[in-house]
Structures are given as structure tokens and as C-alpha cells.
Amino acid sequence: MREFFQKYKSTILYGFSLAVLLFLMKWLEFRLIVIDHALEIYIGSIAVVFTALGIWLALKLTKPKKETIIVEKEIYVNDAEFVQDRNQLEKLNLSKREMEVLELIAQGCSNQEIASQLFVSLPTIKTHSSKLFEKLDVNRRTQAVEKAKRLKLIP
Amino acid sequence: MREFFQKYKSTILYGFSLAVLLFLMKWLEFRLIVIDHALEIYIGSIAVVFTALGIWLALKLTKPKKETIIVEKEIYVNDAEFVQDRNQLEKLNLSKREMEVLELIAQGCSNQEIASQLFVSLPTIKTHSSKLFEKLDVNRRTQAVEKAKRLKLIP
DNA sequence: AGTAAAATCATCCTTAAGTATGACCTCCAG
DNA sequence: CTGGAGGTCATACTTAAGGATGATTTTACT
């Protein structure tokens, strides 16, 4: 019941206003017989009142235009997933073994540890690393790591 | 002249409408004498017409209501600008010199190069790096670099 | 003013890293 | 089938790096 009233509040108010005004008119009609030439004033006031009513109705009933604003919210991803630069890799022409050695060097492994992990001898790792340094145009493992990261060969 | 009309278009139209309707009323007034009991209909139509006029006026003159809906669009930025982990730095209690040495080591510099850049002797750098490795709990410069990056001490 | 931490330098020694060279094997394409 | 590339291993040498210890000087703070 209350919901019904809420929903049609404007319509009911309009109807009620009409009823009241018509009643007022009926009463005024009677007065008009007495007061001559007052009909114009009466009609004018009716016009004004209903114009105001119309304006009020319009303001009440018009639905607001919806305007969507898209706000770009930047989210900084700490992840920064690594994408290997295949282009650079081709240019440098590193072999599989050299890449493996490079990765292990970057992890801080010693030559001996690398040799153990790859099941080869220490001299083998030395030759690999030497060739690697030559291709990377460096002469220290630390430089190799720095350059490899800069060239996006490793994360 | 045209601008004036444009500016006060609504007002002029309103005035004109009023004039027309008053003229109409005058004419109807005459008719009412003939047709009995038609005053109510006449008044009613006046009310309806002016209500409509009011609505029209309101719609024309009032600024359209705006309701802004903010939609957040998530943009994933891969930037991940480096922020030094001050917390870790405090825990490790590294001195200024040790940090400087760490940074240069990370850049691939040799001890001799670091000594030259910092205007100190090679043994000094060795002591610094030794203490640095001790604090970082590593025993190779490459490990130090790897760990420092992992702990977000350096980019 | 005195003390602790930081910074500097040195020496001695060990180990890891880097360089050079040569040899051997395997696989694959010309 | 043969030569080149990749991989393996070895030896010998040089240099850089790392560890241990001690000493002196700066700096900062109570």
C-alpha cells in the first residue's frame, strides 16, 4: 500500500491538485456572477497556477540523463613477467650450452657448481664461459650477467 | 536581432502562447453563453493546456539532469619502478661504502675498477666486499648481486 | 673528551676465474 | 664423405677474487 503510494505519488498529487483546483473553480464560478469582468483574471490565474504545476511536474518526473565516465585506474604489477628477446638471442648466436651456463652464472653459481649441475668437467665450463664472454663482448662473469639482463636474455 | 530572438526565444514563445490562448478564451467565453454548463470543460482544458505548457517550458529551460557513473577501468602497468626495501636495508645494516661497492659490483666492475672509481686502494675494496659478503651471507660477488636483487636492495 | 662504528690501507695466502691452446667426438648439411 | 659447428676434456699459465688478520684514521654520537 505504501509502496503503491510511493510509486504513483506524482500522479496522485496531480490528481488531487486538479480536484482541489476544480473545487476552487466551482466556488469562484459562483463569485464571478457577483463580480463582473473578473473572469479574465480568474482564467489568467488558472493559467499561471497550472503552468507552475506543469513546471513542477516536469522537474519531478524527468529522469536524469546518465553519463558514464570511465576512469583509468593504473595498477602497478610487480610481477613484470619476463619475455626473452629472441631477436637479440639470434644476433648473439649463443648455443644451448652457453645459455645454460649463462643462466647458472646469473644465479651466482661458481664454475665448479655449474660443472656439477651439468654433469661435465670444470674445463668444459671454462671453455663455455670463455666463448660466452667473447660473444657477449665482456671479460667477467659479473659483466656478462649485467649485459645479459640488459639485453633481456635472462630475467 | 536574431541573437536577441534566440536568447529570449522561450520567453517570447511563452508570451505569444499566452496571447493566443487569451484570445481563444475570449472567443470561447462568447460561446459559453450559448452552450450551458460547458464552463467546467473549458476551465479543464485551460488547465491541461497550461500544464502541458509548463512541462514544455520546464523541459526547455532547465539544464538536463546529469547523473555521473564512474566506471573504473583497470590498466595493468608493467613498469614496476624500483623501490628500495628500506626494511631489508635496516636488517642487514649495510654501511654507505658497502652499498656503493655493492652497486658497482652489480654493474660488473672489478675490484680494481671500483677502487679507482671510489678513489681508494684495492685492499680497501676487498675489505668492504668481504664485510658485504658476510652481511649478505654469501661468498661470491655473483651471489651477492643475485641476493641483493632478490632482497630489493638494488634494481 | 672518549668511544664505537666506519673507513682506510697493508700483507699473506688460497682459491676461483679467465686465457690460450690443442685434442677428441658427434652430428648434420653441402 | 667431408668440413664446420657444437660439445667435451685436458694442461698450463695469469690474474682476479676471496679470506684472515692487524693497524691507523675519520666520523659520529654520547
Automatic annotation (TrEMBL), chains A, B:
CDD domains: LuxR_C_like (cd06170). It comes from the Bacteria. SMART domains: HTH_LUXR. One of its GO terms (molecular function) is DNA binding. Residues 87-152 form the HTH luxR-type domain. The keyword Heme does not apply. The keyword Acyltransferase does not apply. The chain crosses the membrane at residues 12-35, 41-59. Pfam families: GerE (PF00196). Keywords: DNA-binding, Membrane, Transcription, Transcription regulation, Transmembrane, Transmembrane helix. This is DNA-binding response regulator. It comes from Flavobacterium microcysteis.
